[in-house]
């Protein structure tokens, strides 16, 4: 990092944060999607003031089939009655696949028809290209919509994830339809660099932290699009209100949410989705903590630890 780069100078107190929450797709004992619980969680999230994001990693976008994706979009539109939401656009493929703009454009069109803003979920075909080709790919997608979010995902969560070089990121900032980007490298430095670049080149562009291991990146100018917030949109909404008000209670609430994030996203991090299900069951919000077939699980011994964190968080927002 260059010597002129001082994160402490980037802190932006009392800022109104934009929070987007990647909704967990819940499952029943029989292994089917629990549509009732999903509907309730989308609504609960929107009612706290966070924008729901469906069909993301937390929604098992790379594991669910087309009818399920479509039904999630339909349900989200119905339950939100015109309130804004985001949804992942993804073209399922294999290592070595060629870039497939047509399938992305089709998915983006579907999302927009349902009233959502597309989030470009990475794929082998997208990230397997050169930096210049990746920029061209986003430009192609921009021609198909008014607004979209880009998304850089850590390979720790999905093997086709990629963190772009800064030149590529700067090129994304030049695409008018790309109004923001979720950054999930799970590292602070590249996100600080992106914030710096954003401030220089395009201040209205939103850098959404996807760093569940450093949720205080919002203090430095990031907004957020997190999976962790699906565990407790109410906790996050309160934390954000404390930040806006300059209320010292922000810090302890953030500390406990971070403890939850560190625990849930520990190695193997893709199992965080089962941690989310265990936590939502403890909260009484879903009846079953089954996760999507094919997704890794956590041991039952995690449950008492999650319960202790939940009790602390509940006390902090009481
Ligand atoms: N939970 C996120 C992934 C991590 O950043 C998502 O669903 O996209």
TrEMBL record:
It comes from Symmachiella dynata. Coiled coil: none annotated. GO terms for molecular function: lyase activity. This is 4-hydroxy-tetrahydrodipicolinate synthase. Keywords: Lyase. The keyword Lyase applies.
């Amino acid at each position: 990092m260059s010597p002129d780069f001082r994160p402490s100078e980037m802190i932006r107190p009392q800022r109104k944060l934009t929070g987007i929450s990647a909704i967990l797709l819940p499952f029943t004992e029989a292994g089917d999607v629990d549509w009732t619980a999903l509907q309730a969680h989308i609504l609960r999230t929107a009612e706290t003031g966070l924008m729901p994001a469906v069909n993301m990693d937390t929604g098992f976008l790379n594991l669910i089939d087309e009818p399920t994706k479509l039904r999630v979009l339909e349900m989200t539109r119905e339950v939100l009655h015109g309130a804004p939401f985001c949804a992942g656009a993804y073209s399922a493929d294999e290592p070595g696949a060629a870039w497939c703009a047509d399938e992305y454009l089709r998915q983006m069109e579907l999302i927009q028809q349902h009233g959502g803003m597309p989030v470009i979920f990475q794929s082998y075909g997208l990230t397997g290209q050169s930096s210049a080709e990746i920029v061209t790919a986003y430009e192609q997608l921009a021609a198909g919509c008014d607004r979209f979010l880009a998304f850089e995902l850590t390979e720790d969560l999905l093997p086709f994830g990629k963190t772009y070089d800064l030149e590529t990121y700067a090129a994304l900032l030049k695409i008018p339809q790309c109004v923001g980007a979720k950054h999930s490298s799970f590292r602070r430095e590249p996100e600080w660099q992106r914030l710096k670049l954003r401030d220089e080149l395009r201040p209205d562009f939103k850098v959404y932290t996807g760093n569940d291991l450093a949720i205080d990146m919002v203090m430095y100018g990031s907004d957020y699009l997190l999976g962790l917030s699906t565990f407790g949109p109410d906790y996050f909404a309160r934390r954000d209100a404390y930040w806006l008000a300059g209320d010292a209670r922000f810090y302890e609430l953030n500390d406990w949410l971070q403890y939850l994030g560190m625990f849930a996203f520990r190695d193997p991090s893709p199992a965080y989705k089962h941690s989310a299900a265990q936590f939502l069951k403890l909260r009484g919000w879903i009846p079953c903590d089954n996760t999507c077939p094919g997704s890794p699980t956590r041991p039952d011994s995690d449950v008492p630890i999650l319960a202790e964190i939940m009790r602390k968080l509940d006390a902090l927002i009481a």
